[in-house]
TrEMBL record:
Keyword Transcription: yes
Keywords: DNA-binding, Phosphoprotein, Transcription, Transcription regulation
Protein name (database record): DNA-binding response regulator, NarL/FixJ family, contains REC and HTH domains
Biological classification of the source: Bacteria, Bacillati, Actinomycetota, Actinomycetes, Streptosporangiales
One GO MF term: DNA binding
HTH luxR-type domain location: 146-211
One Pfam family this sequence matches: Response_reg
Length: 216
């Protein structure tokens, strides 16, 4: 069962998402919060698999809430998905930097919304290739990451990171590298550990900012 926490200052938005999620047999909404501070507190108390957090809220906003969750080792299993009205903007990029696994525009169709929750729950990043290109084109024009840890990566780990940055899943990476899916996952996880990142979304950002992957 995928346990979900909803964090949004608009009750109507929360109720709409909850109604959709409650129809699914494998998803359970464990709590709702109206601001980031309450959301972080509930995340610590309930340890949901996925926290859907609005990016713009009064008080503690989604970026700060994401940062607090990502910084807490006890919440390593909580995957944050940012909710936004505006698509790819500077707030979303800041949230990805803070540790979000990805983002959703609030007018997403129900099928894509449910798919995104399941993708986030299994630890994959919500960054399709088209989204990655837009992110890079708009925000990663100059290298910002020092590349610390890149020298520790093996050639296979570097290749896996490159494919993650292209938006490929572990199964797709395995097929491209002619290895098993568990081995692909191991390469990705080891790269994340060496680069000291929380999830695949941050791995994508570092891959481009460090110059390991070139802007398309």
């Amino acid at each position: 069962m995928i346990r979900v926490l909803l964090v949004d200052d608009q009750a109507l938005i929360r109720s709409g998402f909850r109604a959709l999620l409650d129809l699914e047999d494998d998803i359970e909404v464990v709590a709702e919060a109206a601001d980031g501070e309450e959301g972080v507190a509930l995340a610590r108390q309930l340890l949901p698999d996925v926290a859907l957090i609005d990016v713009q809220m009064p008080g503690v906003d989604g970026i700060e809430a994401t940062r607090r969750i990502a910084a807490d080792p006890a919440l390593a299993g909580v995957h944050v998905v940012i909710l936004t009205n505006y698509g790819m903007d500077e707030y979303v990029f800041d949230a990805l930097r803070a540790g979000a696994a990805g983002f959703l525009v609030k007018d997403v169709v129900p099928e894509d919304f449910l798919h995104a929750v399941r993708v986030a729950a299994r630890g994959d990043a919500l960054l399709a290739p088209s989204i990655t290109r837009r992110l890079i084109d708009r925000y990663v024009t100059q290298p910002r990451h020092t590349g610390a840890g890149l020298a520790e990566l093996t050639n296979r780990e570097r290749e896996a990171v490159t494919l993650v940055a292209q938006g490929l899943s572990n199964d797709q990476i395995a097929a491209r590298m002619a290895i098993s899916a568990p081995t692909a996952k191991t390469h990705v996880n080891r790269a994340m550990a060496k680069l000291r990142v929380r999830d695949r979304a941050q791995l994508v950002v570092i891959a481009y900012e460090s110059g390991l992957v070139s802007v398309p």
